[in-house]
Each structure stands twice: as structure tokens, then as C-alpha cells.
Amino acid sequence: MQRQFGIIGHPLGHTLSPLVHNWGFSRFDLDARYRPWPTLPEDLPAFMARFRETPIEGLSVTIPHKTAVMAYVDEITDLGRSVGAVNTLYWRDGRLWADNTDVEGFSRPLLVRGIAPKKALVLGAGGAARAVVAGLVRLGVAEVGVTGRSLDKGQALATEFGVAAVPWDDRGGYGADLLANATPIGMAGRFEGVSPFPAEALTTGTVVYDLVYNPHDTRLVLDGVAAGACVVPGIEMFLYQAVEQFRLWTGLTLPDDELRPLIMEALYGNDSPGETEDDIT
User: Fold this and answer.
1) Domain range list for the chain
2) CATH of range 104-235; options 3.30.590.20, 3.40.720.10, 3.40.50.720, 3.20.20.80
């Protein structure tokens, strides 16, 4: 029988997860299929009831269900609990587990590049920022600051993880050697062409990690390149969170050097940026 996997969320029109995982199944000659299941918040209880009655082996979870779905599983990993959100469901010994691979997705590009920041600043206070802060704490970064346009949300996130809260207007003077953008600023659409960080505060000693990957060359990325900073592009987090999901489901590791060009082509087509030293792991 063909093994079944998929993703729930809403909307799902532009998700690349089916492309990635179906490529992986083909790559390892597995009889499996991954499909999107668009699911509105009010439909989540019924979907999870069907999930338990249907032979679905694994599930990706995206907005707006990353927190709500935790009420429908049997076990949550310590990491999932610490983040307060999950994005991956899988079965172990007849019990449904929930985990968060966004943390690994964020951390792995730093580890493979040998980047070990001492002081990091996270822009944003939403779900993506939670995974970033958790990743930085797990990596043992000595000083972590969180800043958001909403002072209350930034303070709440900082307090929860025991890190520093930085006022948005003071972000340029924080002096971090790693800057992680977990806001939508710079994303294609109304925020495109805008940077969430003052360009004059970037230096050659800064690592710029922009979670936005559409477009590839965000204003923040371009400002980082102009300043001579090390740049980690946003597709890296997406790539490695998918690699970790695939490993949880199958025990197999997707080759990142083969997967990266597939994602780049899907996102950017003929305008796909050429490989740079920072794109190669």
C-alpha cells in the first residue's frame, strides 16, 4: 500500500513541501505520496479525527495550526513544548508525536558554515521568531536579544525564553554579530524593497540571516552584501526543516546539494541566483 503524507494549513497555494517530499520519495524509490490538505481553523478537529482513522504516516503543519494542533496529539517533544509550536507529526509505537523542525532548519545552516555567534539579535516576535530564539538558545549563544515593532510582544517572547528585550528604535545600536530577520519585512508584495534594519549598522563582522526567501535578494540581503557581511539566504531554513521532517518520517537524509537547486529553480526559475560561497554547504 502506498504510504501517505501531507501538509495542513491555510492557505496552501504556494507551498513547496509537496515538491520537496515527493522528490525525496522518488530519490529513495519509496512508494509514498505527499499532498496538500488545505484546512481552515474550524475544520482542524474533524481533520485530526480523520487523520487518526486513516493510514497517514506523517504530517507537516503550517499557519495557522502550529499551536492549535498540539491539542490533538499524544506526545510533544521537549523541543516542541519549549517553542510552543510544532510543524511535524509522526507515529511512534502507536502514539502520535508532534515536533518542531523549524529550530533545526534555522540552526543547521549556521552549524554547517561554522558560524558561532556570541551576540544575536532577532527581529520579530511571532512564530518564526520563537523557533529562531529557541535555536539560538540551543546553540548556546551567550547573548540573545529580541526586538519587535510591538513592544509588548517582544517583551513577552524575551521573558519566556530568558533573553533580552530590545526596543525597536534601538535595534541598530545593539551590536549583534548575528542578525536574524523573522519578520515579513522584505517579502514580495507590499513589504518588498524595505529592510527591517538600518543599513549603516551592518558591518563586515555581521552575519545577516534573512528568513524571507521570496525574493532571494531582499533589501536586507543586498544591504548585507554591500557592507561586506556574511549572508545566509532564507531558503536554507526551509531546506533544512524539510530535511529533518523527511528524516523523522523515513530515517533517511535528503542530500542538500541535490535538493537546493530544485528549490531554487521552483522559486526563481530562470532568474535563480547563481551559487555563491555562502550558498554552498
Assistant:
1) 3-100+237-279, 104-235
2) 3.40.50.720
Binding site annotation covers 173? no
What cell numbers appear for 188 in the block? Answer: 514580495
The catalytic site residues sit at 66
Where are the extended beta strands (E) located within 100-220? Answer: 119-123, 143-147, 164-165, 178-181, 207-210
Check the annotation: does 203 bind a ligand.
no
For 82-112, write each residue's pLDDT tens digit.
999 999 999 999 999 999 999 999 999 999 9
Task: Give the bridge partners for 128, in sequence order.
Answer: none
- Compute the half-sphere exposure of residue 227: CA atoms within 13 Å on the CB side of its CA: 21
Q: Which CATH superfamily is domain 3-100+237-279 in?
A: Leucine Dehydrogenase, chain A, domain 1 (3.40.50.10860)
Lowest mean pLDDT among 30-39, 237-246, 265-274: 265-274
254 is in an annotated binding site: no
Reported confidence tier of residue 48, pLDDT bands at 50, 70, 90: very high
Q: Which residue has the cell 537547486?
A: 261
204 annotated as ligand-binding: no
Report the C-alpha gap between 225 and 202 in whole angstroms: 10
211 is in an annotated binding site: yes
Q: What is the pLDDT of residues 12-47, one digit of tens each?
A: 988 999 999 999 999 999 999 999 999 999 999 999
Residue 264 φ/ψ region, left for φ over 0, alpha for ψ in the -120 to 50 degree band, beta for the rest: alpha
Is the pLDDT at 279 greater than 70, yes or no? no
